[in-house]
Each structure stands twice: as structure tokens, then as C-alpha cells.
């Protein structure tokens, strides 16, 4: 008889039965996808000779990990390892694998990054907006008049009259991607200098007064933008590998 995959209440469960449970629960495919991803990455890492990681970098990463989680005490760290069913060697290997995967990702995506950024830039550019949302058009016109005559501050009117959550922040919506803004509103906002008022504009059955606060142009100098695009490119590469991988599932009793 095959060795059990796990034992529950002294009852052995074979791997084939565990897979059937996952299949019945509709969770087999996600698990197989995760296995395939790890297989592809492992094979790619084994085939590369340009992904060496200095030992000092690994040790520093271990130190940082322990400091961030208050695991400086050796006993506390050992307890953490045991609670995560991990040996120190396995933990060390996990850190090393993380470094190698990051280097692998960069080596794959870096040649495409500039061109991909140009393609994605229109969707990454954003505008910082403030908004007053109302149900009453006449009230909206009155508030616009007060703003243009500088009789009231935008933040005060937003807190007093706006019916959406931004009222708590003086109408501040924060950065909004151009790709999420309706075309008719986008055209007007793009032509409006920062600090100017737009509206009332009909939006989703209500009336909105907008203030353009700042235009944000996406740049690869922005670490978050760069990281996002690198991750997108790497996922595309992984998905291409998955699609070209042949898999046969054998579930036997």
C-alpha cells in the first residue's frame, strides 16, 4: 500500500484521495497552476548560471527579517521556525530563492520595460481631484458660483454639502487614473489648469463639482510604477510558459 499523504484522526489519506477532495471542492485547478508555476520557475533557475547571490546579502536579509519580526532572540526564532514547520536550512533556502527569483524576473523583463512603459503610460497617468457630490442641480450651481466668487472654500462646502465619502476629507478624492474617468469628463479635466473648478457635471445620476489639484505623469523613476510594470511583464512571461506546458494528471486509487 502506498504511503499516506496525510493522516487525519489516525486515518491515512492517500495523495490520490486528497486530489479528489480538491477536485470535488473546485480547488484542484488553482493548486495545479501553483505547482506548474513553481515547476517552471525551478527549471528556469536551474538552467541559469548568471543568478549568483552574495552570501553577505542573504545573511543581511536574514538579520533584517528577524529584526522586523522581533525574532532576534535565538529561542524565539527557533520557535517561529517550528511553528512554521521549517528548518533553518529550509528558511535559508527560501531567502536565497527569493533573491534568485527577483534577479530572474529582472533579467527577463528589463529588455522590454521601456517599450512596455510607453504602451501602458496612458493608463498609468493620473490626476489628483477633489469633488463635491450633490443630488440637486440648483444647489450645485449655487456652490459653483460661491467658489468662483471666492465666497467659500472648497473644503468647507464639501464637508457641509457633499453626499459621498470624500466629504470627510474636504472632498479630496486623491489620485485618479485617467483610464477610469468617463471620456466626456476626461476631455474637460485635461484642459483645466490645477486649482480651477469644473462643473456641475452630471455623473451617475447626480451632480458633481470637481477641482483639479494636480496632474501626475507616470514615470519609470517612480519605484511603484516600475515595480508594477516589472510584475506585469513577469506574469505575462509566466503565463506564456504555462500555456506551452503539457500536463497529464494521473489520479489513481
UniProtKB/TrEMBL annotation:
UniProt protein name: peptidylprolyl isomerase
One Pfam family here: Rotamase
EC number: 5.2.1.8
Keyword DNA repair found: no
PROSITE patterns the record matches: PPIC_PPIASE_2 (PS50198)
Coiled-coil region: 140-167
Xref: Gene3D superfamilies: 3.10.50.40
A single GO molecular function term of this UniProt record: peptidyl-prolyl cis-trans isomerase activity
PpiC domain boundaries: 124-214
Catalytic activity: [protein]-peptidylproline (omega=180) = [protein]-peptidylproline (omega=0)
Record's keyword terms, sorted: Coiled coil, Isomerase, Rotamase, Signal
Keyword rRNA-binding (UniProt): no
Amino acid at each position: 500500500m502506498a504511503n499516506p499523504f496525510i493522516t487525519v484522526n489516525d486515518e491515512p489519506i492517500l495523495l490520490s484521495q486528497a486530489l479528489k477532495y480538491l477536485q470535488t471542492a473546485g480547488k484542484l485547478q488553482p493548486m495545479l497552476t501553483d505547482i506548474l508555476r513553481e515547476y517552471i520557475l525551478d527549471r528556469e533557475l536551474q538552467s541559469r548560471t548568471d543568478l549568483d547571490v552574495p552570501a553577505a546579502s542573504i545573511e543581511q536579509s536574514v538579520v533584517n527579517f528577524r529584526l522586523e519580526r522581533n525574532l532576534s532572540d535565538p529561542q524565539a526564532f527557533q520557535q517561529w521556525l517550528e511553528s512554521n514547520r521549517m528548518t533553518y536550512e529550509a528558511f535559508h533556502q527560501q531567502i536565497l530563492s527569493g533573491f534568485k527569483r527577483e534577479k530572474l524576473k529582472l533579467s527577463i523583463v528589463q529588455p522590454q520595460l521601456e517599450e512596455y512603459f510607453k504602451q501602458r503610460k496612458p493608463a498609468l497617468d493620473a490626476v489628483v481631484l477633489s469633488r463635491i457630490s450633490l443630488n440637486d442641480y440648483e444647489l450645485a450651481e449655487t456652490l459653483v458660483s460661491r467658489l468662483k466668487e471666492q465666497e467659500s472654500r472648497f473644503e468647507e462646502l464639501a464637508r457641509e454639502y457633499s453626499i459621498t465619502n470624500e466629504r470627510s476629507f474636504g472632498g479630496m478624492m486623491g489620485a485618479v487614473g485617467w483610464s477610469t474617468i468617463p471620456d466626456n469628463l476626461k476631455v474637460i479635466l485635461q484642459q483645466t489648469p490645477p486649482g480651477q473648478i469644473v462643473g456641475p457635471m452630471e455623473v451617475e445620476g447626480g451632480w458633481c463639482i470637481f477641482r483639479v489639484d494636480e496632474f501626475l505623469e507616470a514615470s519609470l523613476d517612480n519605484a511603484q510604477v516600475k515595480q508594477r510594470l516589472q510584475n506585469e511583464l513577469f506574469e505575462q512571461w509566466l503565463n506564456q510558459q504555462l500555456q506551452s506546458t503539457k500536463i497529464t494528471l494521473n489520479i489513481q486509487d
